[in-house]
Amino acid sequence: MAWKTLDDAALAGKTVLARVDINVPMEDGRVTDATRIEKIRPTVDDIIARGGRVVLLAHFDRPKGKVVPEMSLGHISGAVASVLGRNVVFASDCIGAAAEEAIAKAGPNDVVLLENTRFHAGEEKNDPALAAEMAKLGDVYVNDAFSAAHRAHASTEGLARLLPALAGRLMEAELRALDAALGNPVRPVVAVVGGAKVSTKLDLLGNLVSKVDHLVIGGGMANTFLVAQGIEVGKSLAERDMAPTALEILEKAKASGCQIHLPSDVVVAREFKAGAANETVAATACPADAMILDAGPQTVQALTKVFEASKTLIWNGPLGAFEIVPFNAATNAAAQAAARLTREGKLVSVAGGGDTVAALNQAGAASDFTFISTAGGAFLEWMEGKELPGVKALLG
Ligand code: AMP
């Protein structure tokens, strides 16, 4: 790998500024899901084990360059301490005297947590002056926030240019998984793209058809592709004005040798609600007063065959309206097939973005996937083939 990691620098006696993502969900002043904090533990423990002093830089919510007391990272310092099992010294600013004092006060096994970087307008503007103020606080920069790497901010990009820059353990795992899925994958590669609309995933589809061997299109966006091929879809969600774009994607796929898979059978209903009466019909036979809410069993069977013939799978978006039972059936069955093949060592499976994590969790398949990215926007931009400024800065 071209980026440097914690293994590539001497950290003993060094103050390490670690950019992390601890933007956890909160309700009534309590952290409701501490997963993001748990995920930074390997990096924190490793830096301390190597004799470095950990100083966490992070954003929280969207204060838009102003001090917003409700968005203070002070509210989660207790949760950070209990999840990491360490004393946390909180500083009321991420630069200047408050930060310096906290760093000076902290013991070698403590963690310093600096206040929300987005309280400074310079953060989101990638202001070099703010990055320089941050750089003054430490000797080494570690980026462990892949999920913020699609933004060129002072703490994700500017700072990496001013100090020796390393990828943290979580960043490293994420980059390795993404490289194994799309960068240098073992072929054949199958991509599953589902979800509501073609219009939000144009760049993604365009990039994938040039890189993968099989592209499975599911969910509402498959309806747009059916319409583009002259198939009527009744009252289904479909973007009829996107039909020419869908045809262009099909053409591009043909030119690149990428095989597109659309549903051959679908589950239709008259109401968009849990337990709605439904029937399975051929994809060409959606009744005029019905809507397609899921892929059918024949489609799932064909999909499973494609998975079995592939070595690498990359997945974003559900195959149907997975939040309402029984229209989660195709997503669940396909996810379970991918999980089984991964368990058997036959498939490298990487998934992420938006609702995908929720869909795979619901299917009980997430823990068997090779890697599940919780990075959202950054994962999607990477799937779109875009360069992520925070990752690029780590490459020097
Ligand atoms: P996205 O955020 O683009 O990944 O889309 C996910 C959303 O697409 C979920 O809320 C699904 O319920 C919805 N969805 C998937 N398939 C369909 C469908 N056939 N009809 C309506 N909504 C769908």
Helix and strand arrangement:
Blueprint: E1 15-19, E2 26-27, E3 30-31, H1 35-39, H2 41-49, E4 53-57, H3 77-84, E5 88-91, H4 96-105, E6 111-114, H5 121-124, H6 128-135, E7 140-143, H7 154-158, E8 165-167, H8 169-183, E9 189-193, H9 202-209, E10 214-217, H10 220-228, H11 243-256, E11 259-261, E12 265-269, E13 278-282, E14 291-295, H12 297-308, E15 312-316, H13 329-343, E16 348-352, H14 356-362, E17 371-373, H15 377-383, H16 389-394
Parallel strand pairs: 1-4, 1-7, 4-6, 5-6, 7-8, 9-10, 9-15, 10-11, 15-16, 16-17
Antiparallel strand pairs: 2-3, 12-13, 12-14
Helix pairs in contact: 9-11, 10-11, 12-13
This protein binds adenosine monophosphate.
